[in-house]
Amino acid sequence: MLIYITVPNTGWIRHELAGCLRQISHDGRYELLFAEANTLARPLPCARHWIINGFLDCGADYLLMMDSDAVPYSNPLDLVELDLDIVAMACPIWRPGAVPPIVLNARPLDDSKRIIDSRSDGPLLEVAQVSTSVILVARRVLEHPDMANPFEFQYDERGITAVDDDVTFYRKARAAGFRVWVSLEHICGHMKEVDIAYVHSAVKEWR
Fold it and tell me: Is 184 left (phi over 0), alpha (psi -120 to 50) or beta?
């Protein structure tokens, strides 16, 4: 089985992610193809489509795509054996000023805005959409005719982004009959610059 591994980026990745990639490269369970991203492809959806085209051309079985600011805390290749259409590692997002300020970036099937609690929802949860920070996609998904160029922004009549590219991807996939999952046992870090005052307030509130 061949796994196509790549990081869409505009010229840099986190050094922590580089360390994870080095560790993954020693995993002997599967044949691995580490593909370079086209750093001149802008904006990011274009880079993702370059990756998808390369994946389809090489005949790989799964696409493992990791964002440049994501850091897997466990091996994402563990997800291959599940043979799911689309599965992502659980990824936290920082929402300064919101309550709570940190949530998992996933939307339940009922499209509610409830916070997914990794302690109570089980190890594997089917969702409507989830972060694409670390995502494993089966070949059958990207070969489907309705999944051509699946990452795209949608804009309102004033030119303001109404739907971002990863949400479009999940909507298209589910409309084509595929299922989307998040593994709550596989957490990835999400490296962002934060205001320490916000962090202090958040910790004080939780206490």
Answer: alpha
Phi, psi of 35 (to 5 degrees): -105, 135
Residue-wise pLDDT tens digits, 178-188: 999 999 999 99
User: What 8-state DSSP symbol labels residue 48?
Assistant: H
- Strands 2-6 and 31-34, bridge-based pairing: parallel
What are phi and psi for residue 182, nearest 5 degrees? -130, 135
* Residues paired with 136 in a beta bridge: 64, 87
Class of domain 2-206: alpha beta
Residue 201's contacts (CB-CB under 8 Å, 6 or more residues apart) are none
* 3 state SS for 106-149: EEECCCCCCCCCCCCCCCEEEEEEECCCEEEEEHHHHHCHHHCC
The conformational region for residue 150 under phi > 0 = left, psi -120 to 50 = alpha, else beta, is alpha
The pTM is what?
0.91
